[in-house]
Amino acid sequence: MNKVDDNPSRAERAHATRELILTAAERLFAEHGVLAVSNRQVSEAAGQGNNTAVGYHFGTKADLVRAIARKHLAQIEERRQQVLAQIGDSTDVRDWLSCLVRPVTDHLAEVGSPTWFARFGAQVMTDPTLRPIIVDETQSSPSMVRVLAGLETCLRHLPDDVRAERFDMSRQLLVHMIAERERALAENTPTPRASWHDAATGLVDALVGMWLAPVTNDS
């Protein structure tokens, strides 16, 4: 009988180390900001005696940020594709906004509290050097391309500058309202809504109201 080797392979050990680093970095970046956290702190939080572990496994801090984003966005992409299959070629702006919001909140609900990804995203989006990473990773996903196109189709009646402005407003609400709820859950403080599902409903309601608000012409 062949002896079973219970020792993990080098590749398995490397994968496990990478996951520990990703989890530690996401938490520290979410709680303290990306620039305030050193690679040494990430390595220590991940239980790595070697302070060069972060650089060895990921390269630069920007590479580490991208790896954290991709880990979550891949799962969110799967959820969004499922919602897209349900709404088809809808002309209802609420359907497209739900497709924007709910895959994110459903992902956080499945991960379970405490989560750090929403606060991590908010920290990165306020950093001018790292913000393009999240923007590029998000907007280049096939599902997001389709969602943005669907919204454009529903909102062709709006002037171009108004659409651009309201897209910016939507991004701010999506990033920071979800991060605020995540923070409250982590700190065990009251939240306006009882669940991520209900929080998504409130956010979608607000976004629908914003997008369908009248446009004032001051000229």
TrEMBL record:
<keyword id="KW-0238">DNA-binding</keyword>
<dbReference type="Pfam" id="PF00440">
    <property type="entry name" value="TetR_N"/>
</dbReference>
<feature type="domain" description="PsrA tetracyclin repressor-like C-terminal">
    <location>
        <begin position="99"/>
        <end position="210"/>
    </location>
</feature>
<dbReference type="InterPro" id="IPR001647">
    <property type="entry name" value="HTH_TetR"/>
</dbReference>
<feature type="domain" description="HTH tetR-type">
    <location>
        <begin position="21"/>
        <end position="68"/>
    </location>
</feature>
<keyword id="KW-0804">Transcription</keyword>
<dbReference type="InterPro" id="IPR009057">
    <property type="entry name" value="Homeodomain-like_sf"/>
</dbReference>
<protein>
    <submittedName>
        <fullName>TetR/AcrR family transcriptional regulator</fullName>
    </submittedName>
</protein>
<dbReference type="Pfam" id="PF17939">
    <property type="entry name" value="TetR_C_30"/>
</dbReference>
<dbReference type="InterPro" id="IPR041586">
    <property type="entry name" value="PsrA_TetR_C"/>
</dbReference>
<keyword id="KW-0805">Transcription regulation</keyword>
<dbReference type="InterPro" id="IPR050109">
    <property type="entry name" value="HTH-type_TetR-like_transc_reg"/>
</dbReference>
